[in-house]
Amino acid sequence: MKRIQPIILVCNDDGVRSEGIAALADALRSIGTVYVVAPDRERSAASHALTLAHPLRIEKLENRVFAVDGTPTDCVNLGVNRILRQKKIALVASGINKGANMGDDITYSGTVSAAMEGTLLGIPSIAVSLAARSRFRFAEAADFALRVARKVLRHGLPKDTFLNVNLPNVPAAEVRGIRITRQGKRIYGNSIVEKKDPRGRKYYWIGGDIPDREDIPGSDLEAVEKNCISVTPIHLDLTNYASMRALRRWKW
User: What are phi and psi of 93, to 5 degrees?
Assistant: First the structure.
C-alpha cells in the first residue's frame, strides 16, 4: 500500500520568488506534498495583518505554487480556507527568512506571523529565519528546517504553540549546537531618517540602526550570537498572569 504523504503549506514574507522559500519547499518535498502560498512581492514586517478593506487575488504560478496579493497572514488563511479547504494540512512552514526574527522582532515579523496564523487555525507550525544580511546559506538552513519538520510531524506541538527557529549564517561545521531558548529582548535605536522629495515635501524612513540586545541568559539572541541554532516555543496566550493578580488588588 502506498504511504500517503502529509500535506505541508509553505509561506513566507519575502515573496513567492524568494530563494529562501524555494530552498524550504524543496527540502520539505522529501517528506510531504508541498503547496506554496506566498505573497506576490516583498511583505517584510507585515506582522499579523489580515486584509479586510479590499479583495484579494490568487494567481497560480505553477503546480502547487500560488501567489497572493496580500500579507503572509492572508496567504496562510487563504491557503487553509480556500486553496486547500478540501485537504487536511499537517504542517505550516514559514520562511526561510532573509534575516533573523528574534526577541521583539517577532511582533513585527510576517514570517513569524504566518506560523502564528497556522497555529490559530489549529495546524502545527514553524517559522524559520537565517540571521544574515547577505550571502545567505539557505541550503544549510533548509536542511535543519527539514529536521524540525520531521520532529513536529512525529511528535506534534502543544496547543497554541509554534516553533520559532533562527539559524546562524555559518557553515554547518561551525554550528555549535541546538538550544531550546526563550524570547530575548532587543534594544532598538529608534532612528527616523527625514528626507525631502523633489517638490520639497518631507518623507521618512523608519529604522536603519543595527539593534543591540539585553543580556538575557538562555535567549534566542544569545544562542545565535554564539553560533548556535535557536528553537523557541512561542505561545499564543500573551496574558501576563502575575499582573492579573496585582490588578485584582486595585480598587476598581
Answer: -125, 125
237-245, Cβ contacts within 8 angstroms, sequence gap of 24 or more: 237/160
pTM value surpassing 0.85: yes
Distance CA 127, CA 96 (A): 8
Distances from the Cα of 232 to the Cαs of 115, 202, 251, in angstroms? 13, 41, 38
Beta strands in 76-235 (DSSP E): 89-98, 125-131, 161-168, 178-180, 186-187, 192-196, 202-206, 212-213, 229-235
- CA gyration radius, the chain: 19
pLDDT tens-digit map of 68-122:
999 999 999 999 999 999 999 999 999 999 999 999 999 999 999 999 999 999 9
Q: What is the set of domains in the chain, with CATH numbers?
A: 7-183+215-237 (3.40.1210.10)
**At which residue does the C-alpha cell 489549529 appear?**
122
Of 25, 34, 111, 38, whose CA–CA distance to 68 is shortest? 38
- In sequence order, the 6+-apart residues with CB closer than 8 A to the CB of 68 are 37, 38, 39, 40, 56, 57, 58, 59, 74, 75, 78
- The whole-angstrom separation of Cα 158 and Cα 51 is 28
Residue 135: which residues within 8 A CB-CB, separation 6 or more? 169
Q: Show Cβ contacts of residue 133 under 8 Å, excluding neighbours closer than 6 positions.
A: 98, 99
